[in-house]
Amino acid sequence: MNTAQYRIHESWRIFRIMAEFVDALEQMKNVDPAVSIFGSARTKPGTRYYKMAYDLAWKLSKQGFSVITGGGPGIMEAANRGAKDAGGNSIGLNIKLPHEQKPNDFQDVAIDFHYFFVRKFMFVKYASAYVIMPGGFGTMDELFEALTLIQTDKIKDFPVVLVGTKYWRPLLSFIKHMVREKTVSPVDLDLLYLTDDIDEVASIVTRSFDTKSHLTDGMRGVLEVRDH
Questions:
Q1: 98 φψ region: left (φ > 0), alpha (ψ -120 to 50), beta (else)
Q2: What percentage of the chain carries pLDDT values higher than 90?
Q3: Which residues on neighbouring strands pair with residue 53, listed in sequence order?
Q4: What CATH number has the domain spanning 32-211?
Q5: FRET partner for 205 with CA separation of 20 to 30 A, picked from 32, 63, 110, 133?
């Protein structure tokens, strides 16, 4: 492909991006208040965090929340499975990857994405809260994306809950180091919750949602992505 052909190809790429947005927005338009749950694709069934993700998704579904995950194995599978077993709305936002990302079998709504940034927009647009289980780079990406958007007032504030005190304390220690170095503000620590108690997670999510009950019926969840 020569330079001119490449430039034409790049110009047409916008339509593929638009198509992903339109398809996902159409499929998600009737999603009720939802919680996005993140965590490692490498977490095995039967392990502590797999069970916690399952139990939390089951509990949130019984409380009327849809559950959104990345649609893959590990923590994502556990959360989708818990939501489905509870009779809730189990949503998977799948990404096409050369490894690790195989769609799990517990999705009521399964949407496939080529572009990470379109997928990330859908996670944040429909979420009433983010629950962050132990995970790797992708999980960190979603965590800091949410914190950045909240910190810069690009989205309405919602709970960001870290589950797994032993796993996340080293990260929080580094964030406190950032505070001491004055690269983030002390109040930014207040954007995060840390717990091992899934009942506490459910309480944080429902309490936050209840305080935003002034939203109109036509709005999905408690989150509005702002234009400015």
A1: alpha
A2: 77
A3: none
A4: 3.40.50.450
A5: 110
Rounded to a whole number of angstroms, the CA Rg of the chain reads: 18
Return the structure tokens found at 25: 């927005």
Per the CB < 8 A criterion, the answer to whether 86 and 115 are in contact is no
Q: Is the per-residue pLDDT at 218 higher than 70?
A: no
Domain boundaries, the chain: 32-211
* H-type alpha helices, the chain: 3-28, 48-62, 75-85, 116-125, 137-151, 165-180, 198-211
Which residues contact residue 212 at a Cβ distance below 8 angstroms, ignoring those fewer than 6 apart?
A: 128, 156, 222
Q: Does 167 score more than 80 pLDDT? A: yes
Give residues with Cβ within 8 angstroms of 93, minimum separation 6.
Answer: 24, 68, 69, 70, 71, 111, 113, 119, 122, 123
Within the chain, how many helices (H) and strands (E) appear?
Answer: 7, 7
* DSSP letter assigned to residue 155: B
How far apart (Å, rounded) are the C-alpha atoms in residues 13 and 17? Answer: 6
- Residue 205 is encoded by which pair of tokens? 């999510």
Say yes or no to pLDDT of 220 above 80. no
